Inverse folding.
């Protein structure tokens, strides 16, 4: 049952962040997007009730709105659902390189955890690989964690001898 709700949350996050960046949003565009993703009506309704019961969203005459707890939940979990937004691999690899100084240890761990949360694969100790466009999100993280001077992204077509293993990791 939990697997059915992952696309639901991913669609809600995508709709809240990208498609409907307003304080209030109506269920119609979100509902249509979720139906297109293959979810059944009763799963969508249960998912909406679940989000309302947990205090993540609330409903009034204007439509749905994220609550304060919902905004906190979104900030904690949006990276977990990031990978589900990508359906087709563009045959390019993103190498995320970072060399973060020791005094910024907390930021380094937070950055590494975010990379792991989106499903990036560790290539070396401070090098991760990701097959989908992620430059915008990583740029946002770097600004938020004040790491812009220490992180680079290289887009490449080949990974050398490790490419078959990395493809297997991402099921590509």
């Amino acid at each position: 049952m939990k697997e059915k709700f992952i696309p639901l949350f991913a669609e809600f996050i995508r709709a809240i962040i990208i498609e409907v960046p307003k304080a209030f949003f109506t269920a119609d565009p979100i509902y249509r997007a979720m139906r297109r993703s293959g979810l059944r009506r009763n799963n969508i309704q249960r998912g909406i009730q679940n989000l309302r019961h947990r205090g993540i969203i609330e409903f009034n005459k204007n439509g749905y709105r994220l609550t304060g707890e919902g905004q906190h939940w979104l900030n904690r979990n949006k990276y977990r659902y990031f990978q589900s937004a990508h359906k087709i691999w563009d045959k390019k690899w993103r190498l995320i390189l970072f060399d973060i100084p020791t005094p910024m240890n907390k930021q380094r761990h937070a950055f590494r955890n975010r990379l792991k949360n989106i499903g990036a694969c560790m290539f070396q100790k401070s090098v991760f690989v990701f097959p989908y466009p992620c430059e915008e999100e990583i740029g946002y993280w770097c600004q938020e964690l004040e790491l812009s001077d220490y992180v680079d992204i290289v887009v490449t077509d080949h990974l050398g001898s490790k490419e078959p293993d990395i493809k297997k990791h991402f099921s590509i």
Observations:
- The longest strand covers residues 93-98.
- The chain has two domains: 2-78, 93-170.
- Residues 1-7, 17-25 have pLDDT under 50 and may be disordered.
- Residues 2-78 form a domain with the Arc Repressor Mutant, subunit A fold (CATH 1.10.10.10).
